[in-house]
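Q: Sequence in, structure out?
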Amino acid sequence: MSNEMIRSESKSTPSDDSLNQTTIPFDETGDPESDIVLSIVEHVADLTDANVMELPPLYDSVNPGALADLMSSPQSSDVAVDVSFRYQGCRITVSSIGAVTIEQPLQ
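A: Exactly. Output:
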């Protein structure tokens, strides 16, 4: 599967019986920090039925600037860099291929 195909996918599927998983693309060519942060916060709010404005800052879980720098740094086409962390009970994985995966345990 090419990187272009992965970047264009947006799906919400359970990865197993205990998780709700959403994978969303982000554009690492624009402003990666705001694109990544906005994507994560908006989708976590949607998954957790929370108001975006009431969520704690993403910075409490990960340094958004460092994350964006890492994701926008030139990488070998053979190697993807993934960074995972927890935010609002969700496991977030950001990949240098331009995708954010959010996993939330089912209630």
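The longest strand covers residues 19-25.
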